[in-house]
Amino acid sequence: MQFIDLRSDTMTQPTMEMRTAMATAPVGDDVYGEDPTVNRLEAEMAARLGKEAGLFVASGTMGNLGSILAHAGRGDEMILGDLAHTFLYEAGGAAALGGIHPHPIHNAPDGSLPLDEIKAAIREDDVHFPPTRLICLENTHNRCGGYPLSPEYCDAVGELAHSRGIAVHLDGARLFNAAVALGVDPHDLTRSVDSVMVCLSKGLGAPVGSVVCGTREFIAQARRMRKIVGGGMRQAGIIAAAGLYALEHHIDRLADDHENAARLAAGISAIEGLELGPDRAPGQEVKTNLVYFRITRPDIDAATLTTRLHARGVLGHPIGPGANQMRLATHLNVTTADIDAAITALRSAVSET
Ligand SMILES: *Cc1c(COP(=O)(O)O)cnc(C)c1O
To answer: How confident is the model at residue 280 (pLDDT cuts 50, 70, 90)?
Structure first.
């Protein structure tokens, strides 16, 4: 069976054109700084995000970890959302490898960290407290319905942090989705942060990789951290070429994914027994490529619905908390016809007795 795979935008397959770009990329040893394709990707991403330098890493998790380790040390504290990917899904790497103390505060339903709560969380200089070194934002916010944070909000967090001598790191796994959804230049979303990680392997459709950007000095430190975690790669231009191809060809088309997600959301909202929106914001409108919904019928949980969808050729992703929430993601390999088929499958799966 040919599945319609809505589990994640990581499921994208490289296109033939992308594979050709990979096969023909000039390469060298990137640990020696000699891979021209990696160098080009790092420079290109840094230019797009208005930063001095970039660093190609194997994954978003490695990019966030290397950034956090470059900003903070043992016994330092970082403030981040209680629904942040870094807090929930990165195996506690900053604590495990860096001894960095996470200080989670409540994510608002739109994915932001309320400014007054950030202020209250910043530590005074007192021997009892770990020093606050870093604030982490996430844009778009995965667990908060794929919502984009506005440039004005990011600026406000930057201003607050910098006035207290604290750095800001942005988990921009889906930064380009945010920029496309808001109709702003990606630079507007990064101008107030000290570092940013962007995934090439999500909606941009590359098979592997992320890029971290920041000042030259920061990137030199992040490069050392990448080496520590074993992330120094050799002829990595083979995979960096896919990222370059994606930057050139797959950004504007993210709008199609957002349209498909809105279409899927409209379909879901018309199905009795399903309710749109993530747990913290039921009814929340879909703005990018992630569609969260909950099953309101007590006799079906997300695992059951997932099994029934699978039997109908549609793959979805149950996601906590509770056993009744699911997430569907649109991407490069999902057509509008697939969305209509998925809606039909959902309707039939929910009403199956
Ligand atoms: C996927 C994701 C990451 C991590 O990316 P990997 O490449 O899977 O390690 C980080 N942050 C967010 C918000 C993500 O969705």
So the answer is: confident
